[in-house]
């Protein structure tokens, strides 16, 4: 990491004595100023809330915000993600609560979710799902859901256009499931999510990978539990979307992964575990960072998925995943054609990459 | 301003109440104000949106807090950047609003919504300034009158001189005040011109 020039630190200090603290993590004056503003707003807000709840209303001067503000800045200087300090992150129009132990939603995921919603609406408007009656429930499954941001945003975007929805988020972490449920209620309370979400969005704890550890239900065991899927004789799902862990151990430890992410965000949500699955024997040469994609690809034909949107970390990974999807689906699928392509968008500096699998 | 008021007050013995000219002071909003024209709707095809900046890879590896949105209006080449909030969609909304205003201003000039709004504000401010100036002028006049009374008592002269003295006092007592007033007025005009 390049050293911050002393001149910049002095300039920051002259601007605000707390700014050099934020500079340690932000590395640029512009973003440090932004974060300082957001932290300041939040510190004032929290102190005001305390004042209101403590003494019955009243127009008292806000007490204690300075100390709070300072401690927030100190935490940030040690690398604690801003979202963990503030406790939330905007995602589309939603406000997603973030806690330690659950991955913070990324801007790339937001962009991909918006695009997925567009694709779904596009497909619905063309109405080229031959076997689909108009009033049927649109079933969406999000694997490795984390905070529940993807299912909730999809519901917010689709519910005005789709009569009946069933959105399921699956994650292995109990903390994540608890948080996702909380986020549903939170956003309904805030009024950015319709009341329907309470009944139409559900979260299930489940293990994506086939090997069983600690007795979590695998995907096999999970299907009967999911309300939308259990109604049909064979489990079916229309849309599959996922942002699985996709960082290789090498990149995690010696590569491009930020220190703040390594220290404070859960490794479980970032790096796929060592695979022990018997079905993986034939895929000996598979890279560890692509492990989840293989399992998701295997689910696509079994659930008769119409559209799958899989977020990838880089262009090279997207190419690998697309090839793998073609390979896996080519073996399983006998009827209909399958379209696999890579979606990205210019204008984003991070370049979100997603592999789209469409079957007709 | 206050200094000028405070100094002579100590000299006042008992000022005779003077009838103050009655002026209606209304604090309610002007009802007859015309609604502003609606904001210009921009064509989505004309706008290039980009999400800035921060270098290197993103995604799960890095947790970026930057939410800046930059809009470029291609026909007029106006660039707007917004990083007010942490939400990209919110920033985009804000940037779109500003961009619409700027584009309209570039196209219509003085007849645009922003220009009309600014003109209205200016008018309001001018009237406010005028009112306050009038108020302080009157106040100064009153104080000077008190001074004049004192002088008058000492001299023990008649009604005629009282009026004269008062007038004289009004002219001489606060030269600095009237000076600042004019300077202020000039400044005001300059501001108006710059706008």
From TrEMBL, chain A:
GO terms for molecular function: methyltransferase activity. GO terms for biological process: methylation. It comes from the Eukaryota. Keywords: Methyltransferase, Transferase. PANTHER family: HEMK METHYLTRANSFERASE (PTHR18895), MTRF1L RELEASE FACTOR GLUTAMINE METHYLTRANSFERASE (PTHR18895:SF74). This is S-adenosyl-L-methionine-dependent methyltransferase. It comes from Aspergillus cavernicola.
UniProtKB/TrEMBL annotation, chain B:
InterPro entries: Mito_Transl_Release_Factor, Pep_chain_release_fac_I, Pep_chain_release_fac_I_sf. Keywords: Mitochondrion, Transit peptide. Its main location: mitochondrion. Residues 121-195 are annotated as: Disordered. Residues 40-137 form the Prokaryotic-type class I peptide chain release factors domain. Residues 181-195 have a biased composition (Basic and acidic residues). Residues 121-136 have a biased composition (Basic residues). It is found in: Mitochondrion. Belongs to the prokaryotic/mitochondrial release factor family. This is RF-1 domain-containing protein.
């Amino acid at each position: 990491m390049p050293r911050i020039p002393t001149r910049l630190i002095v300039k920051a200090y002259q601007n605000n004595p707390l700014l050099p603290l934020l500079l340690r993590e932000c590395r640029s004056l512009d973003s440090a100023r932004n974060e300082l503003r957001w932290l300041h707003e939040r510190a004032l807000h929290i102190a005001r809330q305390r004042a209101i709840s403590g003494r019955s209303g009243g127009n008292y001067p806000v007490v204690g915000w300075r100390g709070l503000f300072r401690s927030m800045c100190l935490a940030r200087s040690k690398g604690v993600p801003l979202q963990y300090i503030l406790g939330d992150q905007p995602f589309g129009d939603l406000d997603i609560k973030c806690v330690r132990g659950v991955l913070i939603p990324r801007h790339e995921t937001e962009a991909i979710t918006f695009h997925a919603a567009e694709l779904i609406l596009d497909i619905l408007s063309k109405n080229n799902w031959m076997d689909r009656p108009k009033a049927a429930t649109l079933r969406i499954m999000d694997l490795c859901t984390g905070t529940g941001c993807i299912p909730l945003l999809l519901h917010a975007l689709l519910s005005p256009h789709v009569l009946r929805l069933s959105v399921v988020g699956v994650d292995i972490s109990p903390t994540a499931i608890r948080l996702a449920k909380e986020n549903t209620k939170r956003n309904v309370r805030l009024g950015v999510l319709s009341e329907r979400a309470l009944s139409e969005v559900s979260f299930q704890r489940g293990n994506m990978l086939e090997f069983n550890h600690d007795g979590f239900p695998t995907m096999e065991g999970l299907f009967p539990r999911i309300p939308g899927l259990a109604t049909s004789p064979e489990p079916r799902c229309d849309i599959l979307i996922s942002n699985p862990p996709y960082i290789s151990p090498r990149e995690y430890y010696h590569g491009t992964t930020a220190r703040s992410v390594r220290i404070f965000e859960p490794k479980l949500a970032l790096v796929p575990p060592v695979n022990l699955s018997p079905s993986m024997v034939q895929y000996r040469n598979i890279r560890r960072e692509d492990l989840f994609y293989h399992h998701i690809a295997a689910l696509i034909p079994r659930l008769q998925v119409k559209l799958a949107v899989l977020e990838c970390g880089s262009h090279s990974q997207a190419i690998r995943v697309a090839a793998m999807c073609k390979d896996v689906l080519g073996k399983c699928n006998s009827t209909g054609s399958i379209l696999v392509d890579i979606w990205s968008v210019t204008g984003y500096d991070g370049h979100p990459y997603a592999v789209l699998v469409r079957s007709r | 301003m206050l200094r000028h008021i405070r100094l002579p007050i100590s000299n006042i013995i008992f000022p005779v109440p003077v009838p103050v000219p009655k002026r209606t002071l209304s604090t309610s909003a002007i009802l007859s104000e015309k609604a502003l024209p609606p904001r210009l709707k921009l064509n989505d095809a004309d706008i290039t949106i980009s999400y800035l900046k921060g270098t290197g890879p993103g995604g799960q590896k890095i947790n970026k807090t930057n939410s800046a949105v930059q809009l470029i209006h291609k026909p007029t080449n106006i660039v707007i950047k917004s990083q007010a909030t942490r939400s990209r969609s919110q920033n985009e909304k804000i940037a779109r609003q500003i961009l619409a205003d700027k584009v309209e201003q570039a196209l219509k000039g003085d007849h645009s919504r922003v220009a009309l709004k600014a003109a209205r504000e200016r008018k309001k401010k001018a009237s406010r300034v005028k009112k306050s100036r009038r108020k302080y002028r009157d106040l100064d006049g009153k104080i000077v009158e008190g001074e004049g009374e004192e002088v008058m008592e000492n001299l023990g002269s008649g009604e005629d001189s009282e009026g004269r003295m008062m007038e004289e006092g009004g002219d001489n007592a606060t030269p600095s005040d009237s000076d600042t007033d004019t300077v202020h007025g000039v400044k005001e005009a300059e501001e108006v011109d710059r706008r």
